[in-house]
């Protein structure tokens, strides 16, 4: 037994050394850090969009050259949550057709920017603070989760006019879009449930327990073929087989502090940042949807919400006013 454990540990350590970790400082950093939440990668321009909340900016990183451009001068606002005060601003991004949509918590706006020139094209204001922003291609819409009023707002992607309000009985957290089957997925964090919503009818077509417990579910990722949905809890990721009655297949521990995460179709792997334990867990996904942790790479406490861009995972590290980039070592 001891030999088997030592061999497993050795294999894990060797796998971890196959990854290089580097940091990328963002403009406007201070001892307060830079508040980051949802990042978005635009494969057509090889650019990572980083809404940088309290700085009132969106930083756009060219992942090929390492240069950063900035959309500056965006609204910010100080809010109080319990006894904690913080400054909010741009906080979420989603890539559309030659456009990137950015949600701003300061003024409850969603704005569209040209993906190459970064020029602001249009903006709209909704009557609730936006959380996640998601471009839904089958219907050419932008879906905005608004957990404070337990709803999802549906905007026309071309005009940003609000088309519908989907009322829920819980706080939506995270999203995934299955364009092939025209389905939008989100979690109800306070209910420990996951929902499937028909993009055309805006009706809930399936609802099931996320099995995350009291802390509730966080991010979601849909497998490209639409057969499996991966749901993040705060300390693990679960795999569900989709169908008339979604079935929990498997789970893999990640360490504490998980929010959103990403999936590589080519490598059949999930990349999950755990903020509290300061690590990136790489999880293998087999053809039947079962999960197995393969590698853990040390990052930094607070690093989370990894986005895969090419062969590199970029994690938001708000406390350090930086991104942490993890990629396979070339040594």
Would you mind describing this structure in some detail?
This protein has one helix at 2-16; strands at 19-25, 40-42, 47-52, 57-62, 68-71, 77-81, 84-88, 90-95, 99-104, 109-114, 120-125, 133-136, 141-146, 151-156, 162-167, 172-178, 183-188, 193-198, 204-209, 220-222, 228-232, 236-241, 247-253, 262-264, 269-274, 279-285, 291-298, 303-309, 312-317, 322-328. With 331 residues, it is mainly β. The chain has two domains: 34-167, Methylamine Dehydrogenase, Chain H (7 Propeller); 173-298, 7 Propeller (Methylamine Dehydrogenase, Chain H). Strands 1-30-29-28 form a four-stranded antiparallel beta sheet, with no helix packed on it. β21 and β22 (236-241) form a beta hairpin. The radius of gyration is 19 Å and the shape is globular. The chain starts with a helix and ends with a strand.
Stated plainly, the CATH topology of the largest domain is called Methylamine Dehydrogenase, Chain H
Strand order of the largest sheet: 1-30-29-28
- In DSSP terms (H or I, runs of 4 or more residues), the helix count works out at 1
- Distance between the first and last residues' Cα: 33 Å
Relevant CATH superfamily of the largest domain = YVTN repeat-like/Quinoprotein amine dehydrogenase
Q: Based on the coordinates given, report the CATH architecture of the largest domain.
A: 7 Propeller
Which CATH class of the largest domain?
A: Mainly Beta
Low-confidence regions: 1-14
Class based on secondary structure composition and strand pairing: mainly beta
Rg, Cα atoms, Å: 19 Å
Overall pLDDT metric: 94
The figure for the number of domains is 2
Strand share of the residues?
A: over 45%
């Amino acid at each position: 037994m001891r030999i088997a454990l030592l061999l497993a540990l050795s294999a894990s350590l060797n796998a971890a050394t196959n990854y290089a970790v580097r940091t990328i400082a963002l403009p406007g950093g201070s001892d307060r850090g830079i508040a980051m939440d949802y990042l978005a990668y635009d494969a057509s321009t090889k650019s990572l969009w980083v809404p940088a909340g309290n700085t009132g900016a969106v930083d756009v990183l060219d992942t090929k050259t390492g240069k950063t451009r900035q959309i500056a001068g965006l609204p910010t606002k100080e809010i109080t949550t319990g006894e904690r005060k913080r400054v909010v601003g741009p906080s979420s991004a989603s890539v559309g057709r030659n456009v990137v949509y950015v949600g701003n918590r300061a003024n409850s706006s969603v704005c569209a920017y040209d993906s190459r020139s970064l020029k602001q094209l249009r903006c709209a204001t909704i009557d609730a603070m936006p959380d996640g922003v998601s471009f839904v291609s089958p219907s050419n819409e932008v879906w905005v989760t608004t957990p404070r009023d337990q709803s999802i707002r549906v905007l026309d992607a071309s005009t940003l006019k609000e088309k519908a309000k989907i009322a829920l009985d819980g706080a939506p957290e995270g999203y995934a879009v299955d364009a092939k089957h025209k389905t939008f997925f989100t979690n109800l964090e306070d209910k420990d449930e996951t929902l499937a919503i028909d993009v055309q009818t805006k009706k809930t077509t399936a609802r099931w327990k996320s099995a995350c417990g009291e802390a509730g579910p966080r991010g979601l990722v849909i497998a490209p073929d639409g057969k499996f949905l991966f749901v993040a809890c705060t300390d693990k990721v679960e795999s569900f087989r989709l169908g008339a009655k979604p079935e929990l297949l498997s789970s893999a521990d990640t360490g504490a502090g998980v929010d959103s995460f990403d999936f590589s179709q080519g490598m059949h792997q999930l990349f999950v940042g755990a903020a509290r334990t300061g690590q990136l867990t790489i999880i293998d996904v087999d053809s039947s949807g079962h999960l197995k942790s393969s590698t853990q790479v040390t990052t930094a406490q607070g690093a989370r919400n990894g986005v895969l861009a090419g062969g590199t995972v970029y994690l938001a590290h708000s406390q350090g006013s930086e991104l942490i980039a993890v990629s396979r070592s070339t040594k």
